[in-house]
Amino acid sequence: MAGLAAVRFRVNGVERTVEAPPVKRLLDVLREDLQLTGTKEGCGEGECGSCAVLMNGELVNSCLVPVLQAEGAVVCTIEGVSVDGRLAPVQQCFLEEGGAQCGICTPGMILATHHLLEKYPQPTLLQIQEGLAGNLCRCTGYMRIFEAVRQASERGRD
Q1: From CA 14, how far away is CA 126, in angstroms rounded?
Q2: What is the DSSP string of 44-93?
Q3: What does pTM read for this prediction?
Q4: So what CATH class is 89-157?
Q5: How do residues 63-122 score in pLDDT, each as one tens digit?
Q6: The CATH number of 5-80 is which of 3.30.200.20, 3.10.20.30, 2.60.120.200, 3.40.50.720?
């Protein structure tokens, strides 16, 4: 079919190939073509972080990434964070601390937290605030999210 490109990339540990228009957003490919609906769309402009995924180890807003840029990339979505079908410690901490409410921002917040803890296993409050600065939440007031991140960093030491 004219106008489509075959794009190969690894998503959550699985090699995938999709046929899509080269400028189709990675967000839409993940949700529509691969049925990975955990990644959410908030603003569609890269301002809220709800669509954040890890691409080659970097946190990116998938609403801003044309799928062609994912060629050969390694992508991790919220579905790839869990361990053997169980919540990862970061996810468990968000649940326990009330850091997840309506759920729109939660996948992006968890991936931003995962990325932050890779860089700073024991982050300060300022590092947590800066690490999550690209993610907006309209429900929690952030303090519960910050506490969830702190708890996840504590569990990382166990």
Answers
A1: 35
A2: SSSSS-TTEEEETTEEEEGGG-BGGGGTT-EEE-GGGTSBTTB--HHHHH
A3: 0.93
A4: mainly alpha
A5: 999 999 999 999 999 999 998 889 999 999 999 999 988 899 999 999 999 999 999 999
A6: 3.10.20.30
